[in-house]
Amino acid sequence: MSRVFLIVCALSLVAGLPAAFAGSAADPGITSRSITIGGTTPLSGSAQAFAAVAKGADAYFKYVNSRGGVNKRKINYKYVDDGYNPAETVRKTRELVQDEKVFAIFNSLGTEHNLAIRPYLNETDVPQLFAATGATTMGRDGRQYPWTIAYQPTYIAEGTMYANYIKRTRPNAKIAILFQDDDYGKDLMTGLRRGLGAKANRIVAREGHAATDDNVESQIAKLKGSGATVLMLFTTPKFTIQSFQYVNKLGWKPQIYVNAVSSASNIMIISSSRNQNKRVEGAISIVFLKDPNDPKWARDSGIKLYRQIMKRFGSGNAKDVYNVYGMAVAHTFVTALRKAGKNPTRRSLMSAVTSLNERNNPFVLPNMVVRTGGSDRFPLDQARLQRWQRGKWVSFGGLIRARSTG
Amino acid sequence: MRFARAALALTGLAVGVAAVFLVPRHVDRVSDIDLAEMGVYFIAILGLNIVTGYTGQISLGHGAFMAVGGYTTAILVADHGVRDLWTIPLAGLVAAVAGVLVGVPALRLSGLYVALVTFGLAVAMPQILKWDKVEGLTGGGQGIQLFNEEALLGKGFEDIDVFGHAVTFTRAVHYLTWAVAGVLLLVAWLVLRGPPGRAFRAIRDSEIAAASSGINLAAYKVGAFALSAFFAGVAGSLLVISVAFVNPETFPVVLSLTVLVGAVVAGLGSLWATVAGAALVTFLPDIVGNFSEAPGAPDSFYGLVLILIVILLPTGLAGGLRRLIEPLTTRR
């Protein structure tokens, strides 16, 4: 009797040993049944329009969980409100890491906000995955910040794409720029200038404004005074809407370019204010996601899936393209998680996200590849141009690519 | 009855000290980080109460004084390697100087115009910090990253040795914040219960009557501003130490309004209820966020709760509390 007992004890010890060791070696936030990740997003305050970036991702994870999760692990995504205040981002991120013990920070939104938490996350070896910002430094400085990676095309790449198109179609254009006076606006401008190359002297005027300004009326008036024929709007949604109004009011008729941060259909529709604003027609931007409002994608399997997920798991307006962004980045996360092995560690997940080759993301444009590798830490670096025609975006030309760094 | 009041005050103090030690250990739902944030609000509201609640000058710009204090700490730590703890009083002093600079011109204005001037300061502050001419000092829009600075408590987020006990960084910041808050509460109480407090209240109730009783209006009004800004500067300094980072958006216009909301909800002219005001502005945003995530819903609930409080407790939480306790402390 006692011998049997001893044997059972010994066996259970032996069986328990590896489990015990695995337990001590494993990173926080992951068990055999779940993986917990977290991030910050503006759910309140002036930038709450971006909340769908987190909500769309959350809906997609719920969909994946309903189908059994990844390697039988459910993805638990805790997104918390930072009110778009970087100090709050730091605070909430530390709560996620220290108290909630998340495996990784995922999809936190904002340039300054991600910059504020980057040193901390890299010091503590917590992955900072797919930061929702186009700031070039997120992908460029991988040597210094190995735990950080962004997602969308960089603002520099975007600016370069516009420059290449202008050079090709209107080489003698006189260009005026309205830009938000921070890294975001300046990166777009850097890209434009680099793309124009010798033609950079075609930039005849530029006016900056602060993110906290009330309006940009005087800036638009000055830009008009320069006699420019092309107007670049390198600014956030609120100021983009204002710019269209002021340009219209002043009777100025430039070719307008809208940067991708502000080119969501709903913003363009507000700018048109009941189709009375003729300046919105013909505006040009870039696109890398499928727009759920575009009839072209009505039968597309990706957008069909998107609608299903929004209906069952979503919590917002399905017309909001930021939801698609959220699902696209969540899809890439799932791809990386699968690639990180049966028992992912922070390290193995990091090496998975830095060697991506995802060709089946249903939410980005067809033929786009989400790719990283070596020193390339820019998952999305392709896009198409699109033109606003009769109340919707129509893409034209093929996929284009531009260098992500200045 | 003096005795009953003193007993009540001592009990309150004992409960407060016990709460600072017990809440982080035993209440799981409240994190150390939130408690430290609440302490920062507590100090700022305390300061605002001196100038607005006791002296009757409405300030909508206390976020700007917090910014002055916060940047003082950040610049001293990052550029000059000054130990962060020593920068706390310095941050208060620099902010107090800023308070005098605002308080002197405010002498020529009254009532709502003081509110407008201070509001202008709060609106301008983020832009001033990004101004090309001071960018070298303030780091512009990027701000100043303090993480891993030697002069910073725990170099930012490392465990800290407190009297031989290893304490997590966040817990240490919580203790630090509330220790400073306790000292400043004592300072505020000593100032307000004595002659300066009487002068402040006289000015609030009637400037003409105060002046005719021989109170130096200019000196006391500017003094109130300076003292109040000192508190705000200390609050800003502690905020920066706790997040090891600062940029202009750390001190948005909303922050000034939040501090005022906390003071009004607590009850202007009352020190004890400041705790409740600080708790409200710290936790209410998170609580309303749980009701619904529909766009705009959290902000709307926040507004609704404030409206309800102001309707139901027109004299703030302090007034409500006083009505409850009055039978115990006064003889009929």
Structural class of chain B: mainly alpha
CATH topology of the largest domain in chain A: Rossmann fold
* Top CATH class of chain B: Mainly Alpha
**The CATH topology of chain B:** ABC transporter involved in vitamin B12 uptake, BtuC
Strand content of chain A: 15-25%
CATH architecture of chain B: Orthogonal Bundle
Q: Write out the CATH superfamily name of the largest domain in chain A.
A: Response regulator
Give the biggest beta sheet of chain A. 5 strands, parallel
Number of helices of chain B: 14
The total count of helices of chain A amounts to 13
Q: Low-confidence runs of chain A (pLDDT<50, min 5 residues)?
A: 11-24
What is the topological layout?
The complex is a heterodimer of chains A (about 400) and B (about 325).
Chain A: H1 2-25, E1 34-41, H2 52-66, E2 74-81, H3 86-99, E3 104-106, H4 111-123, E4 128-131, H5 137-140, E5 148-150, H6 155-169, E6 175-180, H7 183-196, E7 203-209, H8 217-225, E8 230-234, H9 237-249, E9 255-258, H10 265-272, E10 284-287, H11 301-313, H12 321-339, H13 346-353, E11 357-358, E12 370-371, E13 382-389, E14 392-401
Parallel strand pairs in A: 1-2, 1-3, 3-4, 4-5, 6-7, 6-8, 8-9
Antiparallel strand pairs in A: 10-13, 11-12, 13-14
Chain B: H1 2-26, H2 32-54, H3 62-80, H4 84-106, H5 112-130, H6 135-138, E1 144-145, E2 160-162, E3 165-167, H7 169-193, H8 195-205, H9 207-212, H10 217-243, E4 245-246, H11 253-266, H12 274-291, H13 297-312, H14 316-329
Antiparallel strand pairs in B: 1-4, 2-3
Helix pairs in contact in B: 2-7, 2-8, 2-10, 2-11, 2-12, 3-4, 3-5, 3-10, 4-10, 7-10, 8-10, 11-12, 12-13
